Task: structure prediction
Amino acid sequence: LRVTSITSKHELHSDEVYSLAISTCDPNYNIPLPDGEYSGDDLKNRLVASGNTGMKGTIDDLVQLWHNNGDAPHASLYYMALRVALTGLDCWDVERYIRRGGALNLLFFCLSFYVMLRLLRRIFGRKDLVVYAGLAVAFLNVMSVRNTMMLREYQMAETAVLVLTFVTVGIVQKMREGRLFSKWRTVVALSLS
Result:
């Protein structure tokens, strides 16, 4: 379902264009265009990754994103991952951008699915019907599929919330069982999630 949704997509939402501009450290991001006439080709060329699109360009962009991504409300981690996924693209080809960003989000989805399966098993044990129903409710809905389709941080955020929930449930279960574990181990587990 997700792969079909990604491969049948042929245009970008305006927020996705911003994701591409931020991830490639586009110098034209957040700068108004000077008055004048522009062809569609001119505008497309302004959106292409600036400078070197190979590994050197990727590393330069990652360093810049680490320091400042130019989008204060959003964390740089997704933009950094997207930039790595876009390594080598040197022309404006919407379909290739969608496929690369979609593949990145599919990786995050696979991790989400695995963590959710482990979480449901941790909570419900071998009650297979409940586990499968939980997976269906969590992932067979329009919003979950859309999280994977969009070249935005939504799928990564979903994955992070599931990992945090998985770790938290594990800690609570151990505390209820009376099993003691060190404060250090708790801090490490929570910080990794």
